């Protein structure tokens, strides 16, 4: 499976895109998942996917209290009145991801984690300042997730896991566009110097995160046809696509 691209979403005209209608539609057109078969994975495959799937399961779920507070503030300040509802639906979708992974883990008796260091660091970083910090950290994790779910899909022959990954990729791709659009709204009226500093910070954060995540879940990535070089290149390409949206307010064609 190759890299999915941001231009491959259904979003053609980002400035007119109705996010609320999209989330309603997406939520009522989910891929069918049948959790009754727990014989698709060998013991070796269960061992292979366990550490990373546990980490992503915990990372996907959140009440989003701090995020929601920042969202309300930003919506009021920027007169983007649909934003709180859009982000409420987005958080619900992330929690669905977490629940789906949990259900999949349950059929193979994989215990969910309560806490994880990487997840804690991400949550800490997100809460450092306001909406921009939240969204930058969020979208970095989502771009990493795009490569992770591609690798996870490649790593085993589980049909159910492949459908789950396809659903994740479908949803996360749109999430990356959503967060990038928010960054466009934030950066639009700011100095170009400030904006280029933020872009540099995003590149550093992406390089660091890609390095840590790949090395932590190396076995899974290698089995999923993601040597480090390819993983890093894909993460940086997603970032370039996200920065294009942040700069131009549209998805690159
Ligand atoms: Fe997600
Ligand atoms: Fe997401």
Low-confidence stretches: none
- The 3D shape can be described as globular
Could you say which small molecules are bound to this protein? fe (ii) ion
What is the fold-level CATH name, i.e. the topology? Ferritin
Q: What structural class results from the helix and strand content?
A: mainly alpha
What amount of the residues lies in strands? under 5%
CATH architecture: Up-down Bundle
Number of strands: 0
Describe this structure in words.
The chain has 253 residues and is mainly α. The protein has one domain: Ferritin (Up-down Bundle). The protein is 72% helix and 0% strand. The protein is built from ten helices and no strands.
Quickly list its features.
253 residues, 10 helices, binds fe (ii) ion, Ferritin, mainly alpha
Short description:
The chain has 253 residues and is mainly alpha-helical. 72% of the residues lie in helices and 0% in strands. The radius of gyration is 18 Å and the shape is globular.
